Amino acid sequence: MSRLAICPGSFDPVTYGHLDIIQRGANVFDEVIVTVFHNTSKAPLFSVAERISLLEEATKDIDHVTVDSSSDLLMNYATKKGAHAILRGLRAVSDFEYEMQITSMNRKLNEEIETFFIMTNNQYSFLSSSIVKEVAKYHANVSDLVPEVVERALIKKFQRNAVDG
C-alpha cells in the first residue's frame, strides 16, 4: 500500500522554503501531490496555470512528486485522491495556532487522514511568498529565495505591471 500525501498551498509563487518541505516530504512518503488550491481570501499574482507550471519546473527533479490543482475543500480532494496524509510546513511558532485550527477542522471532516508538519530549515524560517513578491516588486534580487524559473517569472510579471501601471 502506497503512502500518499497532499502538500496543499497557494504557492504564489513557490519558494525554496516550499521546496524544502516538498523534498523532505518526498523522502518520507511514497508519493506527494503538490496541490495548488484557489484561496478566495488572497489576490494571487500568478494564475493557477502559471503556478502549476512553475511548480512542475521547480519539482521536476524530485522523485515521486506530481503537481495538481483544486478548488475543492482540501479534505474532499484528499479523499478523492486516496491520500493518507496532509503535509504542511511550519516556519515559526506564529504559524502553529493557525495550522492547529485548520488541522482540527480537517480532522473533524475526515479523521482517517493525518496531518504531518515539517519544520522548515532555519534559513527559510522568514520566507513567505508574500515577502518574495514584495521584494521582487521593487526589483530586488530574489535569486536565493526562489528557483531561477520563478525569479524570471517574477521579473517578467513586475516589468509588465510597471508598463501597465
UniProtKB/TrEMBL annotation:
Cited SUPFAM superfamilies: Nucleotidylyl transferase
Keyword field contains Hydrolase: no
Compartment list: Cytoplasm
Pfam families: CTP_transf_like
This protein's record includes keyword Hydrolase: no
Catalytic activity field: (R)-4'-phosphopantetheine + ATP + H(+) = 3'-dephospho-CoA + diphosphate
GO biological process, one term: coenzyme A biosynthetic process
Family: Belongs to the bacterial CoaD family.
Protein name stated in the entry: Phosphopantetheine adenylyltransferase
